[in-house]
TrEMBL record:
Protein name from the UniProt record: Novel STAND NTPase 3 domain-containing protein
InterPro entries: nSTAND3, P-loop_NTPase
Annotated source species: Streptomyces viridiviolaceus
Entries under SUPFAM superfamilies matching the protein: P-loop containing nucleoside triphosphate hydrolases
Domain of life of the native organism: Bacteria
Length: 777
């Protein structure tokens, strides 16, 4: 592959320098393998590793002259061996005496006709004198051609071969980015590196990363799925750095679909959009999913124009979101190659992840030595979370750890138990700092300036203002991170370093009813309802579980929310989501008793059903046997009216309507639509036409909602050929109207591409232990 044009030379003067000694022997060997594949285009086999105390790993194959023979112009075709020699010491010079074993092995390989050429790659320096002596010894062993390439050559190769960096992205964090990026991209790269610095240092190129990079390159889109702590965000951020380097993309870390569309510039095709937790951070947030459905045509247009989009989501959140995503607007999500489960990690990737986190953590050398015999078992633990592996490398999380096989496997398998013990063992000031950060929601602003409620939290936990300030600094890097929260550029402060740390702290707080009551009193209702759970069962993503004794307090908060959100659709969604997803039957019964008119009010829902919340709440009340017969009747009357007049087909496929409507009611409603919609469709088109504003949207996009509803009806009628034919006639009539409007707006458009009737329905190994040099400084 040809490198990006502006990557042909380093941007800054001087030779680049990457901290290759920090990679570890196995990662350095992988880097050498990437050089073979990506720079020299050689196919190779791997020799089994010896465990002789050296830093060796070897590849062999049949040399074929590469198209870009940097440093290898004279290597003849034929059998060759590449030997890797890694040292953990910085600024070390390789001497012939360190290769005594290799000279003997080289002669044996020559005798087996496996080695005509011998290429030595090392991260150490090789002086002219040492290089000449090493070549002479190899030639004396029978090698026909000997080539020695040291750390300087490897650094130069990294700087001039972007494709190599794509598959070894750790190098972005090992050197001066000005050696790689031009001035335009350098600032963005530095900002990304600030976010990624610790993650890149320990990053492992997994199969999930390779497939994600391939999906972005080929399709311009990828959705990364996985449980909390499996590394979705790190892969996404690393892809952002790669996109900046490989494709010259300007990167945008957007918060949601609306922000993506707002920042999309059709005149700047090379844009990379990275959206973490696209459908909700710890639970499904319907308004985010609806934004994706509403904006997906513009997003797909951006991708077709050259933009690249990476989304991440917890797997259980995506499962909740998927029913509300319009299939017609998300064709890429139906292609398996762009939806990637990042949690599937083979054994060798797990071990490399664990090695990196412990090697680059802050554990003392003696602790690392004690861990070494048990790390293979720890890496085989199910499930395996890279985030938990990171904690194993940090002293702050391992005070209670037993340094034996059972202790390490328990730590990996039961992270929440160890996390609870860790929080319990913190000093009062540290507990207070975490509690204030949790209470603040997204970010505890800096500088620290406590209000009366925050002082109350500090008093109850035994913290002091000065002590909390020191604790915040102490906890930064392990439990907390400091900087701008997502989507904010004017606010700075502290937030939890990872969502699982925040959720674990919430579980720790839930044991103290007095503290929960403080949180319920100390925040606005929006923050409270977004972060609590009144469901007595297990609920993924729960932050703070409220005990039944405090249900009346939450009902009071809901009453305030109801009063303040009468005309605010987005704010209404917060408390609707809470009622629909995070309330037990007992809580709903108490709420219905205190607010009997609320349920009746919700029966006045509007179109379109795929974006309104009230039916979800009504369905939850029905599940709890709290929906009164009179309200059930109003629901049926309302949906019947919308099904024909809008027309709205959401009731045919949305999950809540399988609860709200009986099978008989569904059949009766389908029959009414079949009978009445065809004769009323001209009136429907007139209503849609009166509301169309050519200044706000393209007609094809404007009518896409109607198009989607009609296709949903056609799918619902698939067993009734007459009804399907009738719906298809209606669809053609709508497409004729869209074509007419488009032609009036732009008569020069090609008529062939606008003819009605041509619309398409929506598209549905190693003998040597990787941990061998773990305890070497």
């Amino acid at each position: 592959m040809t490198d990006h044009p502006r990557k042909g030379a380093v941007a800054a003067p001087g030779s680049p320098d990457f901290a290759l000694h920090t990679l570890g022997w196995r990662a350095f060997q992988d880097l050498c393998a990437a050089v073979l594949r990506e720079v020299w285009a050689q196919s190779v086999h791997t020799f089994a590793d010896s465990n002789d105390g050296g830093r060796d790993g070897a590849f062999y194959g049949t040399w074929q002259q590469p198209p870009d023979p940097i440093g290898v112009q004279d290597v003849p075709d034929g059998p060759f061996v590449l030997q890797c020699k890694h040292t953990t010491k910085a600024d070390t010079t390789l001497t012939p005496s360190e290769l005594s074993d290799e000279f003997a092995k080289a002669q044996a390989l020559v005798d087996q006709d496996l080695c005509g050429s011998y290429v030595l790659l090392t991260n150490a320096r090789v002086s002219g004198t040492s290089g000449a002596a090493i070549r002479r010894r190899l030639l004396d062993a029978g090698v026909g051609y000997a080539l020695i390439l040291d750390g300087r050559w490897i650094c130069d190769t990294i700087a001039t071969h972007q494709r190599l960096r794509t598959f070894v992205p750790r190098v972005y964090g090992l050197g001066d980015l000005s050696q790689i990026f031009d001035e335009r991209a350098y600032t963005q790269a530095q900002a990304l590196l600030d976010y990624l610095r610790d993650e890149l240092a320990t990053f492992v190129v997994t199969d999930a990363y390779r497939r994600a990079a391939q999906a972005v390159e080929e399709h311009g889109f990828v959705l990364l799925l996985g449980e909390p702590g499996v590394g979705k965000s790190v892969i996404a951020a690393t892809l952002a750095m790669t996109a900046l380097d490989a494709w010259g993309c300007l990167t945008v870390n957007a918060h949601d679909a609306d922000e993506l569309v707002r920042h999309w510039n059709p005149h700047e095709p090379n844009q990379f959009f990275w959206i973490d937790d696209a459908f909700g951070t710890v639970r499904h947030e319907r308004h985010l999913t609806d934004d994706w459905s509403r904006h997906m045509r513009q997003i797909m247009a951006a991708i077709r124009g050259g933009a690249k989009v990476v989304l991440t989501s917890r797997d259980y959140i995506y499962r909740d979101a998927r029913p509300y995503l319009k299939e017609s607007a998300h064709p890429l999500l139906h292609e398996q190659q762009v939806v990637i489960d990042v949690a599937q990690l083979p054994a060798h990737e797990r071990r490399q992840i664990l090695y990196n986190h412990i090697k680059l953590g802050d554990q003392p050398n003696g602790v690392r030595s004690a861990m070494k015999p048990h790390l293979h078992a720890a890496a085989d633990t199910e499930p395996f979370y890279p985030e938990v592996a990171k904690r194993l490398g940090q002293q702050a999380f391992t005070h209670h750890l037993e340094l034996n096989s059972r202790g390490l496997t328990d730590f990996m398998a039961r992270p929440s138990d160890f996390l609870r013990d860790t929080y319990e063992g913190l000093e009062p000031d540290e507990k207070t700092a975490l509690a204030l950060t949790y209470q603040a929601g997204g970010c505890l602003p800096a500088p620290l300036n406590l209000d009366s409620t925050q002082h109350d939290v500090a008093t109850r936990l035994g913290g002091t203002v000065s002590g909390v300030g020191r604790a915040l600094r102490t906890l930064t890097g392990t439990f907390l991170k400091e900087g701008h929260p997502p989507g904010e550029h004017t606010v700075t402060g502290w937030s939890f370093r990872h969502p699982t740390l925040e959720e674990g702290f919430a579980a720790f707080l839930a044991d103290d009813t007095n503290l929960i009551e403080i949180f319920l009193s100390g925040q606005n209702w929006r923050a409270i309802l977004s972060r609590i759970d009144c469901d007595t069962g297990e609920h993924p993503g729960t932050l703070l579980r409220v005990p039944p004794t405090l249900y009346p307090r939450v009902v009071t908060i809901l009453q305030i929310a109801d009063f303040e959100t009468l005309d605010d659709w987005l704010s209404q969604r917060i408390w609707h989501d809470f009622l629909a997803d995070r309330c037990s039957d007992d809580f709903l019964a108490l709420y219905a008793q205190e607010e009997p008119d609320t349920v009746t009010h919700m029966t006045r829902f509007t179109s379109f059903l795929n974006v309104v919340d009230e039916p979800r709440v009504l369905a939850r009340f029905k599940q709890a046997n709290l929906l009164r017969p009179a309200d059930q009747k109003r629901v049926l009357e309302r949906v019947t009216k919308l099904a024909i007049e809008s027309p709205d087909a959401g009731w045919t496929w949305l999950p809540e309507w399988k609860i709200l409507l009986s099978e008989t009611e569904r059949e009766q409603l389908l029959s009414q639509v079949k009978q009445q919609l065809p004769s009323r469709f001209d009136e429907v088109l007139q209503d849609w036409g009166r509301n169309y504003d050519p200044r706000s949207s393209d007609p094809d996009i404007y009518y896409d909602e109607l198009r989607s509803e009609l296709y949903n009806y056609r799918k619902a009628f698939e067993r009734d050929h007459q009804a399907v034919s009738s719906i298809e006639q209606i669809i053609n009539k709508m497409e004729e109207e869209v074509w007419r409007i488009q032609y009036e707006l732009d008569p020069q458009e090609s008529l062939a591409s606008k003819l009605p009737g041509h619309s398409t329905p929506p598209n549905e190994p190693y003998g040597r232990s990787i941990f061998d040099d773990l305890d070497e400084d």
